Automatic annotation (TrEMBL):
<feature type="transmembrane region" description="Helical">
    <location>
        <begin position="224"/>
        <end position="244"/>
    </location>
</feature>
<keyword id="KW-1133">Transmembrane helix</keyword>
<keyword id="KW-0812">Transmembrane</keyword>
<protein>
    <recommendedName>
        <fullName>Probable membrane transporter protein</fullName>
    </recommendedName>
</protein>
<dbReference type="Pfam" id="PF01925">
    <property type="entry name" value="TauE"/>
</dbReference>
<feature type="transmembrane region" description="Helical">
    <location>
        <begin position="250"/>
        <end position="277"/>
    </location>
</feature>
<feature type="transmembrane region" description="Helical">
    <location>
        <begin position="155"/>
        <end position="179"/>
    </location>
</feature>
<feature type="transmembrane region" description="Helical">
    <location>
        <begin position="73"/>
        <end position="94"/>
    </location>
</feature>
<dbReference type="InterPro" id="IPR052017">
    <property type="entry name" value="TSUP"/>
</dbReference>
<keyword id="KW-0472">Membrane</keyword>
<keyword id="KW-1003">Cell membrane</keyword>
<feature type="transmembrane region" description="Helical">
    <location>
        <begin position="199"/>
        <end position="217"/>
    </location>
</feature>
<comment type="similarity">
    <text>Belongs to the 4-toluene sulfonate uptake permease (TSUP) (TC 2.A.102) family.</text>
</comment>
<feature type="transmembrane region" description="Helical">
    <location>
        <begin position="42"/>
        <end position="61"/>
    </location>
</feature>
<dbReference type="InterPro" id="IPR002781">
    <property type="entry name" value="TM_pro_TauE-like"/>
</dbReference>
<keyword id="KW-0813">Transport</keyword>
<feature type="transmembrane region" description="Helical">
    <location>
        <begin position="100"/>
        <end position="118"/>
    </location>
</feature>
Length: 279
């Protein structure tokens, strides 16, 4: 690997992890395009490295979210069971799905994520006196010093959506936060910061199983993983601070633009145009 490529991968992973961690999506959604379009890495190899970067993002930003009271541990454990099962299914499907189909699905995920960012999220379910005693209730202090109480609604529906998120996570090499956060918002109506922080913890656990499978199969390129992981760790720490301290509207706009831009070359890959498909 040349020094210039190392620097490009490091900076790209850092920027992607900072943006991704700020919204609970980790940096995997940026790492795959970075590796396939810049380093010309084949899609399966890019997925393997991306999963490792997701683990790095989750571990690095997790302590900040836990200290701020944003992560709902009890809910994360329940939802992660369904997500892990879905991830195992995704790993088994990896070699059966054509590369162009994966690019197409990836582009669709990017577009859906962008739409979600533009449309915003529904109001969270405020906790009543009875809800505060619920197993999935919680509270945190927002950036403006206001105490926010909440509880999770329709957990079984959310668990079903997490199964699908786990499957796509393994297939696409992303943290599946792009699907988990909308699911927690639409199905369980959690506050955005709780959804993001809880998703951040879950995506790391989900990625562990899939990354281990790639490591055993010998499809993980450790040389490529080094600059990506280093950049992901530093970027996710910055992203965690952004999420805790910021209200988020400006970041949401920037993230939407980035997702839309990334969807263009991924769509070209799916259609076989422009020679974008990694070699």
């Amino acid at each position: 690997m040349t020094a210039s490529l190392f620097l490009v991968l490091f900076v790209g992973a850092l920027a992607g992890a900072a943006l991704g961690s700020a919204l609970g999506m980790a940096g995997g959604i940026f790492v795959v395009p970075l590796l396939t379009l810049v380093a010309h890495v084949p899609f399966p190899a890019a997925v393997a490295v991306s999963l490792v970067s997701v683990i790095a993002c989750s571990c690095a930003s997790g302590p900040k979210f836990l200290a701020s009271g944003l992560t709902n541990l009890r809910l994360a454990i329940v939802l992660e069971v369904a997500t892990t099962l879905g991830a195992l299914v995704g790993v088994l499907m990896t070699d059966t799905v054509p590369a162009r189909v994966l690019y197409g699905v990836f582009a669709a995920v990017l577009v859906v994520s962008a739409i979600q960012m533009v449309s915003g999220r529904r109001r969270a379910v405020a906790s009543t006196t009875g809800a505060r005693s619920s197993r999935f209730a919680g509270s945190f202090v927002d950036h403006d010093g206001r105490s926010v109480d909440y509880h999770a609604d329709r957990v079984p529906l959310g668990a079903g959506l997490m199964f699908g998120a786990g499957t796509l996570s393994a297939l696409l090499g992303i943290g599946s936060g792009v699907l988990k956060i909308p699911a927690m918002d639409a199905a369980m109506r959690l506050p955005i910061k709780v959804s993001s922080a809880t998703a951040n913890l879950m995506i790391g656990v989900t990625a562990c199983g899939a990354a281990a499978a790639h490591l055993v199969a010998g499809s993980l390129d450790l040389e490529l993983a080094v600059p990506v992981v280093l950049g992901s760790v530093l970027g996710s720490v910055l992203g965690a601070k952004m999420l805790v301290r910021a209200a988020g509207p400006a970041l949401r706009i920037v993230f939407t633009v980035v997702l839309a831009v990334l969807a263009v070359p991924m769509t070209a890959n799916a259609l076989g145009l422009g020679g974008w498909i990694g070699r």
